[in-house]
Design a protein that fits this description.
By secondary structure, this protein is an alpha+beta fold. Helix content is about 40%, strand content about 15%.
Length: about 525
């Protein structure tokens, strides 16, 4: 254990003597801190404020079969070192409530509502404890992530009780958008209160297609679960596969081969590239700047064809596996990737030069959809929107994985802006950084094996995993079960953190700006509604 980590533990033990206990973890950068419900708010607030720690996730786990309690885990990530402080409290079935930390740490607001829906535990003191995921159309006392809920249960269809907030006043009218959209996207409902074209308020509702993904993970063999993890999101398949594999490798105590680490890094940066370039084109489409939108889609198509050459499909599925990677990148494939990246670098620069020379496009992007640093921090925003709002945070740097500690790259951050243009600039900068990372990986990648065999995993072992996907920081938490199966696999996607920020960026803008703002965040419905 590092000296700094021990100092943090000593600090907490002194501050909360007799109130907390620190458990030994098999994972070097994870510190588990147990306390009781009545002390939860003070312990979490102290960690958040004293250590400047971000709330990365809140995980609820039905451990009644093990210790007669539900357990809630609060994952805090330290800013300046690779350490997670994980506070956990037991909650009994007889007293199914826990104190809300949302009034002190606003980023907890969706997590606590999700726990209420899925486990039936009440966050006492939450400022808005209404249903989040289930829309009020599940029968009473139906909690899908409790262990005694059968995954094959067929529930009756009930009318949704989901309320919408309304703005009253002369000249105010509502504009409903969705939940079914004209584009090929999943459902989400956006209700604008506007006067003329000026938006006063946006009420956004998601979770229309809850798939029960986390429930399906329960009791799955760990080898089979990889295929489900990889399909959580279509365009972040490699990120989700890497996150799952890292979790299994940590609980199994397995170190993957160095060459596999570099290949994983290459694949993850190729995923970032085709997403970011496509997203820049999407923002242009949102502003009706169709020429640059078409160029963005064209360049992305080159990359997706390259994906198919590497993996046999356009979304980089199938190459990441438990213990490493399934197949190698030989010299010929390396040369093909390098040559295409040189072409794309020049092609993409031509696209962005046209964009940045267009005064009408800049007028649409600058000052539009601003997200302040204070709001972004309060809501726990991650990824591109966070860095565009002055938050210097990137999991590849804060908690290095794969081969990221072996390469040099900059994290682009824009201060005092937080608008659509800043989010576009972060993506533009990161495109060049991704190309540089891939080039460094090719020059530093050693020879050797590409996979370590993982035959078994120990039962009831816990571990965190983390990946900086194109959309931001993914956090995964795993608990294993006997017979090489999963007891719990919790996925916290960046979109889960970032969707709540959208309504804060809308007031004061005009209705035609919403597609532009929404596309600049480039959030995922599928990653959110698991």
């Amino acid at each position: 254990m590092s000296a700094n980590r021990q100092l943090h533990i000593d600090n907490l033990s002194s501050q909360f003597k007799g109130i907390i206990s620190v458990a030994k973890s098999s994972q070097e950068n994870e510190v588990y801190i147990s306390t009781k419900k009545e002390n939860l708010v003070d312990v979490c607030s102290y960690i958040h404020n004293t250590f400047n720690a971000s709330l990365s996730s809140i995980i609820c786990n039905d451990e009644r079969s093990l210790n007669k309690y539900f357990k809630i885990y609060y994952v805090f990530s330290l800013q300046d070192e690779d350490t997670f402080l994980i506070v956990n409290v037991p909650v009994s079935e007889q007293q199914p409530d826990f104190p809300s930390i949302t009034p002190r740490i606003p980023a907890a607001h969706w997590y606590e509502r999700e726990i209420k829906d899925m486990f039936g535990l009440e966050p006492v003191g939450h400022p808005d404890p209404y249903t989040l995921v289930l829309h009020g159309n599940f029968p009473d006392n139906t909690y899908p992530l409790r262990k005694d809920f059968n995954v094959n249960t067929r529930l009756p269809h009930l009318e949704s009780k989901l309320p919408f907030k309304r703005v009253e006043g002369e000249g105010v009218f509502e504009i409903p958008v969705g939940p079914i959209h004209a584009g090929i996207i999943e459902p989400g409902h956006f209700r604008f209160s506007a006067v003329g074209d000026s938006i006063l308020y946006l009420d956004a509702k998601l979770f229309y297609t809850h798939k029960g993904t986390e429930k399906i993970f329960e009791a799955m063999p760990f080898t089979k679960a990889l295929f489900l993890a990889e399909r959580i999101c279509g365009v972040c398949a490699a990120s989700h596969a890497t996150g799952y594999c890292q979790a299994i490798e940590k609980v199994a105590g397995v170190e993957i081969p160095p060459r596999a680490k570099f290949i994983r890094t290459i694949i993850l940066e190729l995923e970032r590239l085709y997403n970011h370039i496509g997203d820049v084109g999407n923002v242009c489409a949102g502003a009706s700047f169709l020429m640059c939108a078409s160029h963005g889609f064209r360049i992305r198509e080159y990359l997706q064809k390259l994906n198919e050459t590497i993996t046999g499909n356009r979304y980089l599925r199938g190459i990441i596996t438990i213990g490493g990677v399934r197949f190698d990148i030989d010299y010929d494939l390396k040369e093909r990737i390098s040559n295409l990246l040189t072409i794309i670098k020049n092609d993409f620069k031509g696209l962005t030069d046209i964009m940045l020379a267009s005064s009408s496009l800049l007028d649409r992007m600058e000052t539009t959809g601003r997200l302040s640093t204070e709001t972004a921090k309060g809501l726990g925003v991650v990824g591109v929107p966070a860095r565009a709002s002055g938050i210097c945070r990137d999991t590849r740097v804060n908690h290095p994985y794969a081969a990221y500690s072996e390469v040099d790259f900059d994290v682009p951050v824009y201060y005092n802006e937080g608008d659509v243009f800043a989010r576009v600039k972060v993506r533009i900068d990161e495109v060049y950084q991704s190309i540089s990372i891939i080039e460094q990986c090719f020059s530093k990648m050693p020879e050797g094996s590409i996979k370590t065999t993982v035959k078994e995993i120990p039962p009831y072992r816990q571990a965190l995993s983390y990946v900086e996907s194109p959309r931001g920081e993914d956090i995964y938490w795993i608990m294993t079960a006997p017979n090489n199966r999963l007891f719990r696999y919790k996925v916290r996607s960046p979109s889960f953190c970032n969707w709540p920020a959208i309504p804060y960026t809308i007031p004061g803008n005009i209705v035609p700006d919403f597609p532009l703002i929404n596309k600049s965040f480039e959030l995922c419905y599928s990653c959110t509604d698991l």
